[in-house]
Design goal:
single chain; 130 residues; mainly alpha; Antitoxin Xre/MbcA/ParS-like toxin-binding domain-containing protein
């Protein structure tokens, strides 16, 4: 996942979140977040499903794919400045900008568009803070 900062930061992350095929996106997201966290966001119990999505053997539902595309956008934005470990911790940790709800949980359980906007705003604030 190699993203370059745009004028507002994250332009390539946004473009890739739209342009990548489902399998490519899941593979890249898995490389940054790990299979367990992708499975959690995708609401599946086994990482085998994530492997099958990444290999193109199986497709997630449209709603799950929307959640994964939003997760990718945010992960790629964060990965522009921080390591994989930091990105994983950010997704799993309590976030004061999200009422102390971990971003991964909000993406999994929240209304997808509202959750995505809130998480993206929190990620932008995190990267701006340095």
């Amino acid at each position: 996942m190699t993203a370059v900062a745009g004028a507002r930061g994250g332009l390539k992350a946004h473009q890739d979140s739209i342009r990548l095929s489902d399998a490519e996106l899941v593979r890249d997201l898995r490389d940054v977040l790990g299979s367990k966290l992708v499975a959690y966001i995708g609401s599946v119990k086994e990482t085998r499903a994530v492997r099958q999505w990444a290999d193109g053997e199986r497709r997630p539902s449209a709603e799950v794919m929307t959640r994964l595309r939003h997760a990718y956008h945010v992960a790629a934005l964060l990965a522009e400045r921080d390591s994989r470990v930091v990105v994983q911790a950010w997704f799993q940790g309590m976030n004061p900008q999200l009422d102390d709800v971990p971003p991964a949980r909000l993406l999994r359980e929240g209304q997808v568009e509202d959750a995505a906007q809130a998480i993206l705003a929190a990620a932008r604030a995190f990267t701006a803070a340095g």
